[in-house]
Amino acid sequence: xLLSRLQKPAGLxxxxxxxxxxxxxxxxxxxxxxxxxxxxxREILLAELAEDESVQDVEQSEPLQGSRTSGKKTTPExxxxxxxxxxxxxxxxxxxxxxxxxPAPAPxxxxxxxxxxxxxxxxxxxxxxxxxxxxxxxxxxxxLILLGNEVLPGTSTRLAWSPGIQIAGLSQPTxxxxxxxxxxxxxxxxxxxxxxxxxxxxxxxxxxxxDLDPAKLSGSVIGIPIVNLSGFQQGSRYLPDRRDxxxxxxxxxxxxxxxxxAHSLFTNIIQHCDMLVDIHTGSLKRTNLPQLRADMNNxxxxxxxxxxxxxxxxxxxxxxxxxxxxATDAGIRAVTMEAxxxxxxxxxxIDAGVNSLASLMEKQDMxxxxxxxxxxxxxxxxxxxxxxxxxxxxxxDVKLGAKVSRGQVLGYVADPITNAQHPIHASxxxxxxxxxxxxxxxxxFAAYHIGTEAKIPGE
Length: 459
Prior knowledge:
- By secondary structure, the protein is of the alpha/beta class.
- Helix content is 33%, strand content 25%.
- The chain has twelve helices and 19 strands.
- The strands form three sheets. It has a five-stranded mixed β-barrel with strand order 9-10-12-19-17.
- It is globular.
- The termini are far apart.
């Protein structure tokens, strides 16, 4: 019995060996090809992950010459898109008082039937009739065509922009506030929260737009308080694919998630603008003095910065992929406004931003108000970051906006284990226009941003 049981497994093994020998060669070849395909797919996946995880390295290399190719590739996209920037509207946007509390804009399908009825009540154009008797308002404004809607002169409304990158049944539109003045004038666009953790710009745009009277406005103002809606909901600077949206403009309709969002925003909204103010805050636990980042080598942009009251100007040519850079390349006067730090709502920084936008609209003859201009802020053509040479806990001795001299102690890094204290000295005379908040830092961390005032670039 025992001998017969031992013979059964032996016979089985012999049978299996004969079966394998009888397999066709093509079957074995197919199995080897499948293993090669899985290995190659794994290599592709690892390559994609490596590209995604090197976001910080890409950001740091953007200002260098090695990244110019990306800027050159994106320029033809602007020229090829421009002829398509005049879509015919399919409905008239309702006239809404932005100061009143209203529900968020609904997706496109349910909004269509309601919008067809509302324009009938606004067809009488009551706001333009009130502005018509004024003799100085000789040139009435025309309709503003935006996002498939026709915004009548002298009206304000809420529209919805969707980049079309989400699941159709779960898509959430981004609110767009529009005020189309009763009189002709330029179109000013305000964008904020391209980085989802930067909050001050949301309130700056809200206060600016809700304070406008369309019957007394010359031109149009378009505000997008929250561009990166998914990042805002998660309190994250980046998009869900861990990319920085402000490095992908003007975008690519067939590119990555960031490229598709950038392309949709740029073609559907930004190309309708004559002027653009992109509002940001400091990143990675840093705070910025209220300031403008502008390419002062561009005469049109340099003149544009003169309209911002009590706002320092820092010369920055911009990096390829930034919204400001792409807008300037498209002939739009564009600047970046920096105010405060991320993940905070700071009243003082918000007041500075709202005040500067009010002065800008007064300077551009969009509004007529009794505006009192403050003392002009300097232009900083040169600026440098002072970095920590040691790791530890950062403690600052200076405050944001303070004037410093070369060699002055700005703060120190304390080693919590050895009790050693390492001072950080100013590299030049100037003003603290940005700085890190007290925190744990590593060697090489950018701690203080010093702006150097000069009348001539490079002086």
